[in-house]
Amino acid sequence: MGGSSDADKLVAKADKLTKLSLTRWSADWKSATVLYEQAANAFRVAKDYEKAKEAFEKASKGQEMISSPWDAAKHMESAAALAKDLGKWSEVADFYRRASELYVECGRSQPASDALAKGARALEEAAPDEAIQLYADACSILEEDGREQMAFDLYRAGASVYIRVENFGVIEKGSGLAFEEVWLAPSWSEAQFLEAFYVVNISQWPSPLIGYSDAAAFLLRLGLAADKCNATNSQCKAYLSAIIVYLYAHDFKQAEKCYNDCSQIDAFLNSDQGRFASRLLTAYSEGDVEEIKHLAQSSTISHLDNTIIKLARKLPTGDVSALKTDAVKEEEEEPLDENDLT
């Protein structure tokens, strides 16, 4: 108790230094911040985590007031870690976001992104919708700084959370990732296509659309980031992963469309992953369950991320015989061309 009691006195003394009075016309934030820091550490040693959290918040504000955003960010991260231990999930998100903003003030995109990623990992189970938002924002920071390669794992993590949420039904409606597909002009160059391909608006989340489509959107965004880094292998794996997600959701039409769009990129079309996707979709269109199961066990699948491997191993998830029936009907309904003499 002595540690906590002494720390309380430090906070009280620091609070006085930040308040104006008849005898103090300006706040002494420099001295107060030192006291807040001492108190925060003392509270933490005494395992009084609530007061330690509050003291780190005050220490962070103090560092801001003396124009030291880096140290302010560090203290805010400490407060966020304590909020996690206390199970105060909304504070976890708020504190890590504030830490990220302070790192941005320092011009440091990597720690700014890292802070959001820490918050996302802490919230994956307790608040998956918030975790996905944090992962998306963490990716945005790195993209804006031209550091897409550092965001690869974050996109994978975001997609994994979406898939887990869809499987177990935890996420709240109205917090989905808003994304739009871009209609492609035939005259566009490959570079223009890549810039427009599956544009994901990860700063606005008004859409109620959630689940596998959003997981695929994360993976497609990863593919675009990988292309900018000339990471062809990661790019092709991301595109194949997105197709598998659609197939797991038993959305053959969207999987086929995704494949057709991705195949406009030569790197994917000529890759092992592209050829594998073609074989897999052919097996679906033919209603060949055994071939689908066989392909799901292939080495191409084994080299994908664990979350995607688990989905692929469960294919097919629905009745694929209907796909074969639909294909036959389309052929039968195709009008006869009287001018075609072949």
From TrEMBL:
Species, as recorded: Trema orientale
Alphabetically ordered keywords of this record: ER-Golgi transport, Membrane, Protein transport, Transport
Lipid bilayer topology: Peripheral membrane protein
Entry protein name: Gamma-soluble NSF attachment protein
UniProt-listed Pfam families: SNAP (PF14938)
GO MF term (any one): soluble NSF attachment protein activity
Principal localisation: membrane
Top-level taxonomic group: Eukaryota
Cross-referenced PANTHER family: GAMMA-SOLUBLE NSF ATTACHMENT PROTEIN, SOLUBLE NSF ATTACHMENT PROTEIN SNAP
Family: Belongs to the SNAP family.
Any GO BP: vesicle-mediated transport
GO cellular component assignments: SNARE complex; vacuolar membrane
Protein location: Membrane
